[in-house]
């Protein structure tokens, strides 16, 4: 546990403006802003009219959660708040602290409140790493005002922070820095003679600066670490005061390889697979290739990506292109056979094929509607004529009686009731007019037109000879029912009781 008191009464302790900067500290630590005016980016939180800045300057801060990607200034903002408030500032890291540390901070906060009426700000870095029990331990002292919580997290608080704790805190979102903001931070560090590298003349070419900005991915800490490493690997040991020049080769030599921003088990994983799925559904092969490459180059399990592509083939393309599923399965097999990096090209081919294929979700909707009826309606027995009759008893009971063998009829089709009586006439699958589904639709329309419809009754029902329904003309004479079943009104409205999110990930990463 680490605590730091930044405001002391008249005991000779330094005020914030007098705090010394350790020259041996990393450049990113030395260049942390000391006040709101030095802060670069996050104007919605640090600008002159920002609500957060006003409550801090008026020393009326309540508990907050700072959420954003790495290197955008969450810890720095907490330290700026600490310097501007009269509260005691206590800092914990959820990666190393436990419940015992929390209890110790709370006990000291209560003692401080009784003796000096001084409030305590508890800053917890990486608060999402605290488990439920540890977060529960914070809840009562946040609620009664014993501590004012500042939590910092890179993960979505909705998933990683207890709902009760969230309801007692205000969540502020911090975005990745823009390129021009990263440039300003790099230039300030290069020229600042007190906290930065300004004691030594350093020239940074435009290509080198552009590379630093690009490689940082909006992360100020990463940009400063790369700059410091480039300077350290370029400066001759025997000429520490000599001017140095940094160009693109020096940056490439220092960095070696770009560090990609990705978390296989976090929100970034779900965001990018969602972007890939929606790009394929939106028939955008270029975006599909980009998001696929983002996942594979960041170390995502390629077989997970292959499974998701199979899902896209059946959910968003279906029978509009029946080859979509075989292509996706072939890509999965190719990846399984070759592995990375060779198998990536098979997944890329699949993604482009799916993105450029005709789209239809009618199969997906049809299965949802059928599933809803299975779950929500009574499960009636199979009609007798569709049942198997392997024994004499079953035949005597009528199993298989009057079944019409489709191959005995012209065109290989004959109407008969295949659904339970309660669902007779229900239509689940209605193809589109796109791709192969157009041919399917035409075929279904011709088949469905042969469904017998009872004649309209316009007068008294005759009692002598009942009307005989027209029979089809089979090749051999089949056994037919005396009359066709009466049809109920057709409907294609799917059940609304099974509304699944089409972008829900049913196959989370291992």
Summarize the structure.
This protein is an alpha/beta fold and 510 residues long.
Structure write-up:
The protein has about 500 residues and is of the alpha/beta class. Helix content is about 45%, strand content about 5%. The strands form two sheets. Strands 1-3-4-5-2-6 form a six-stranded mixed sheet, with helices on both faces. Strands 7-8 form a two-stranded parallel sheet. Helix 5 (about 100-115) links the parallel strand 3 (about 90-95) and strand 4 (about 120-125). The longest helix has 18 residues, at about 100-115.
Question: Secondary structure elements and their pairing?
Answer:
Layout: E1 2-4, H1 27-30, H2 43-46, H3 51-57, E2 64-67, H4 74-84, E3 88-93, H5 99-116, E4 120-125, H6 132-143, E5 148-153, H7 157-160, H8 163-167, E6 170-173, H9 179-191, E7 202-204, H10 206-216, H11 220-234, E8 244-246, H12 248-255, H13 267-281, H14 285-297, H15 302-317, H16 324-338, H17 344-356, H18 362-376, H19 392-396, H20 437-449
Parallel strand pairs: 2-5, 2-6, 3-4, 4-5, 7-8
Antiparallel strand pairs: 1-3
Helix/strand class: alpha/beta
Strand content: 5-15%
Mean pLDDT: 80
Number of continuous helical runs: 20
> Main sheet?
6 strands, mixed
- List segments where confidence is low: pLDDT < 50 over at least 5 consecutive residues: 1-19, 454-504
Q: What coarse outline follows from CA principal-axis ratios?
A: elongated
Order of helices and strands: EHHHEHEHEHEHHEHEHHEHHHHHHHHH
């Amino acid at each position: 546990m680490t605590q730091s008191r930044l405001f002391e009464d008249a005991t000779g302790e330094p005020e914030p403006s007098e705090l010394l900067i350790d020259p041996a500290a990393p450049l990113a630590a030395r260049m942390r802003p000391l006040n709101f005016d030095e802060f670069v980016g996050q104007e919605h939180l640090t600008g002159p009219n920002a609500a957060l800045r006003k409550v801090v300057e008026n020393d009326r801060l309540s508990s907050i959660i700072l959420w954003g990607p790495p290197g955008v200034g969450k810890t720095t903002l907490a330290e700026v708040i600490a310097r501007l408030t009269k509260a005691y500032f206590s800092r914990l890291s959820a990666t190393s602290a436990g419940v015992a540390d929390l209890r110790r901070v709370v006990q000291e906060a209560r003692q401080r409140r009784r003796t000096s009426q001084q409030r305590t700000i508890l800053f917890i870095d990486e608060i999402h790493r605290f488990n439920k029990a540890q977060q529960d331990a914070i809840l009562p002292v946040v609620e009664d005002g014993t501590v004012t919580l500042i939590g910092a997290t890179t993960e979505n608080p909705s998933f990683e922070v207890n709902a009760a704790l969230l309801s007692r805190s205000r969540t502020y979102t911090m975005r990745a820095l823009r390129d021009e903001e990263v440039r300003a931070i790099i230039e300030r560090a290069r020229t600042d003679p007190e906290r930065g590298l300004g004691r030594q003349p350093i020239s940074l070419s435009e290509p080198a600066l552009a590379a630093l900005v690009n490689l940082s991915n909006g992360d100020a800490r990463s940009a400063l670490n790369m700059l410091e490493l480039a300077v350290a690997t370029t400066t001759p040991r025997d000429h520490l005061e000599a001017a140095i020049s940094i160009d693109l080769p020096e940056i490439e030599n220092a960095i070696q390889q770009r560090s990609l921003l990705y978390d296989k088990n976090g929100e970034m994983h779900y965001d990018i697979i969602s972007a890939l799925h929606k790009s394929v559904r939106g028939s955008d092969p270029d975006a599909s290739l980009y998001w696929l490459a983002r996942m594979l180059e960041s170390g995502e399990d390629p077989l997970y990506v292959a499974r998701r592509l199979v899902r896209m083939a059946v959910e968003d393309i279906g029978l509009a292109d029946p080859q979509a599923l075989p292509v996706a399965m072939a890509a999965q097999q190719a990846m399984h056979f070759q592995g990375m990096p060779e198998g990536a090209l098979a997944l890329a081919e699949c993604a482009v094929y799916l993105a450029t294929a005709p789209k239809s979700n009618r199969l997906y909707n049809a299965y949802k509607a059928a599933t809803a009826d299975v779950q929500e309606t009574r499960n009636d027995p199979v009609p007798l004529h569709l049942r198997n009759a392997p024994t004499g008893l079953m035949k005597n009971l009528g199993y298989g009686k009057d079944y019409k063998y489709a191959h005995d009829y012209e065109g290989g089709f004959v109407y008969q009731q295949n659904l339970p009586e309660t669902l007779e006439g229900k239509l689940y699958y209605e193809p589109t007019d796109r791709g192969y589904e157009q041919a399917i639709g035409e075929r279904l329309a011709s088949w469905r037109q042969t469904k017998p419809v009872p004649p309209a009754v316009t007068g008294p029902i005759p009692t002598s000879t009942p009307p005989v329904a027209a029979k089809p003309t089979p090749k051999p004479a089949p056994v037919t029912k005396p009359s066709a079943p009466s049809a109920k009104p057709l409907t294609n409205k799917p059940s609304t009781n099974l509304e699944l999110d089409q972008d829900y990930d049913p196959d989370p990463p291992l």
